[in-house]
Amino acid sequence: MGDFLAIQKDLNASGLVPEDMLVRPLEHPERAATNAPPMTDGYVIPYFSFHGRPNGFYRVRLFDHTPKYKQPKNSPNHVYYPPGFQEVLKDKSYVIITEGEKKAAAAVKQGVPCCALSGVDSWRNKIIIVPGDSALSTHKGDVAVRLGDGDEAEEDLTAPLALGFQELIDQILNNRLTVIICYDRDQDGGIKHDVQRAAAALGFEFRFRGVPFQNIRQLILPRIEDPNYPDEKVGLDDFIRYGGDVEDAITELLNRKGAFPVHPNIRDFINKRLGRAKLSRKETQNVGLAILADLDSSGLRLRSATDTTYYFDYKDKKLLKATWSINGRDAEFDAPFTQFLYQRYGLSAADNRLLIWLGTQFTSEEPIEKVSPFKVFARPVVNEDVVNWQISDSEYVRITKDEITIESNGTHNILFESSQVEAISGRGLLQAIANLRPHRLTNWWAETLTEVRLRDKDRPRVATSLLYYLSPFLHRWRGMQLPIELILGESGSGKSTLCTLRLSILTGGASLRNAPQDLKDWHASVTSSGGLHVTDNVQFTDKNLRQRLSDELCRIVTEPDPFVEQRRYYTNADLIRIPVRCCFAITAIQQPFQNADLLQRSMILEFEKDTSTPMVYNSDWHNQQLNAKGGRLAWVAHHCLVLQSFFQLVQKKWQARYEAKHRLINLEQSMVLMGEVFGANATWLPAYLSNVTDRVIAENDWALEGLIAYCKQEPTQIPGRITAAEIASWASAEDDFNNCEALTNPRKLGRYLRTHKSLVAQVAGLFEAGSWQNRMTYQYRQTRK
Q1: Cα(310)–Cα(369) distance, rounded to whole angstroms?
Q2: Residue range 364-369: average pLDDT?
């Protein structure tokens, strides 16, 4: 009776009764078989096969004895499956594996499928390999091994599995179950080093046996809040008995992106393994998995549409492009991710074999999420009145009508790629904004452009300055289409220097791109750019490339969600779409494009050298302009305040049905409102923008220039109904146009008028007036003053 009460009390501590485990009192045969002292009391825990049949193996629980548990001498380890395990496993998507039979039985009693190991490492029959010259001795009844200097005992990873473990693996694989490792934790939240190491080793084994990485998870039990709980550790049975909801804990665990058990001392683990003369395939894979689990515990693995992989570090808030140094390629030594692997794990190109494994695991093991990283500026929501401007690898400034804040990378569903800008201090920027806020906003760009060699220093200067406050900050804001900036002028007139100043403010660096050799080069350049993409000194010898590039620019500027389409690497059929999130500036000595479509999407700034005085070149002009206002930090603060004031004005004066003369959506209205931010009357802007565009288009289209000249005659010289033949006759008599076959040939002129009907009506004022005597006639109407 005493034995029964002691058994009942011991099981009751786990919320169990003898029938839950089919235990029986300890007898003399079991004592003898397990080398238990003759007078020690306890009970026998019978083991069952995976399918619930007794398999003859048992362990004994001893009262008032250390160790508390023993098993028959020379018997292999077994996995413990509690009575009823198979029944509760039905229709479940997971199975728990823990340490200790009572914990597994308590979980099964609650309807949670759980099996147990007799020890955290007892999923295999553990064998330790020591060097052959080691000395054996005894110490207090135990076997002691003395290792030589520099020698180290190694665990035999090929040791046989515990009996019943393979059946568990088969069940997990066949039914695609998630295996949840749940070992004891301390009440203070920590897990003992050896216990966590064993959890990681078990995770490695499951992965090596084919269980997907994402389907291997570790459940770290919450703290027991009951003040009556007496123990310093929390086991699964304790958690259940004191009211813990196992199902809720499991649901939360399964909803996480990943929870592979992390090695407690990852760097020491790596160094010890890599210090060996030769690593087996399994050991190399395990080291890679240990690194991968550690990466997942402190960040995210990500993949873009182009199959570029990234790693986002939660601590540093940096999005690193995950490049892999393979075969010691020098070009990758300075890559941020390569440096990150060295700093955290001590890896270098010398660990090439491991890096190959890790690179494959990084891209192949789930979970790896999709990402479309931003560069310099981010606009995840086009209709939101906000600007997100990257100021470092880990921070960006967020500007709204109400506030200007410094945000950590990764917030608001925004991830900025690293190495895009030269860092400025978020705290310093807020201080610079506070210093400028009390002062009235003035147009710094208009002041700066007075020192630029513009052909006309009045309206072009003001219009350009207003554009510089919009572009590229408001790219696609409310669907706004920002123009291609064509900066034209003689060599040495200062075009590139002005672009250098703009880029120095936007990113801290000035990366002017060369003219592309083919469209593929240009695609690669623009898709890797953020903010403003400047192509310097453009001149085309290849007319086909010029036409294709012109068509691409026109498409990208006006598409709502612009992209570049390319074939996926290593395939012939798969296509990928890469977003384009930048505005364009092009410098050239003379106009590189003649297409009206592109010119209508452009803002043209013309430079000229001053021949009245000797030319003087200032090599440090852009730095002087930065420093004149207080440096880059002050310029960035100024732009932030201007954008905030603009958003405040938008709330009051924005017209959703604004009728614009310029074809680019919302550009005209935005420039007018930006003028008001500085207290200027910019009502002249719409006509100015249209007239400049018309002039440039006409200058680059001889036939259109002739039509404009025809319509500028005295009204009395223009008949009410005009035919193509009459215009051709006029052109043939004009010295400026008598060699323009598109004008002097009535048939070609008629075709031109039909093809460019809208453009001719808008620019020249010639509208179709219907057919007369089988010929199309036109009528002149003045379109603007």
Answers
A1: 10
A2: 92
Q: Which pLDDT value is given to residue 282?
A: 92
Task: Give the residue carrying structure tokens 């398999």.
Answer: 55
User: Which helix or strand (DSSP H or E) is residue 698 part of?
Assistant: helix 685-699
Per-residue pLDDT band for 15 (boundaries 50, 70, 90) equals very high
Report which residue type is found at 170: D
Q: Which of 296-305, 340-349, 389-398, 755-764 has the highest mean pLDDT?
A: 389-398
* pLDDT tens column, 147-170: 555 555 555 556 789 999 999 999
Alpha-carbon 403 to chain mean position: 26
Alpha helices in 606-684 (DSSP H): 621-628, 632-653, 667-677
Average pLDDT over residues 719-723: 82
Nearest to residue 259, comparing CAs of 301, 232, 227, 294?
294
Distance between CA atoms of residues 389 and 423, nearest Å: 12
Helix/strand/coil for 553: helix
226's CB contacts (< 8 A; 6+ apart) are: 242, 243
Q: Are 115 and 80 in contact (CB under 8 A)?
A: yes
How much is the pLDDT for 318?
95
Domain boundaries, the chain: 2-131+151-255, 266-370, 377-436, 444-686, 701-780
pTM: 0.83
Q: At 307, is the pLDDT very low, low, confident or very high (cuts 50, 70, 90)?
A: confident
Given a contact cutoff of 8 angstroms between Cβ atoms, the answer to whether 177 and 186 are in contact is no
* Strand partners of residue 390: 396
* CATH of 2-131+151-255 given 3.40.430.10, 3.40.1360.10, 3.30.750.24, 3.10.20.70: 3.40.1360.10
Q: Return d(Cα 74, Cα 82) in angstroms, integer.
A: 23
Around Cβ 674, how many Cβ atoms within 10 Å? Answer: 26
* Separation between Cα atoms, residue 641 and residue 444, nearest integer Å: 12
Q: What sign does the CA torsion over 323, 327, 329, 330 have?
A: positive
Which parts of 255-386 are beta strand (E)?
A: 299-303, 309-313, 318-321, 369-370, 377-378
Residues with Cβ within 8 Å of 50's Cβ and at least 6 positions away in sequence, in order, are: 79, 81, 86, 164, 167, 168, 171
Q: What b/e sequence results for 316-343 when a residue is b if at least 16 CB atoms lie within 10 Å of its CB, and e otherwise?
A: bbbbbbbbbbeeeeeeeeebbbbebbee
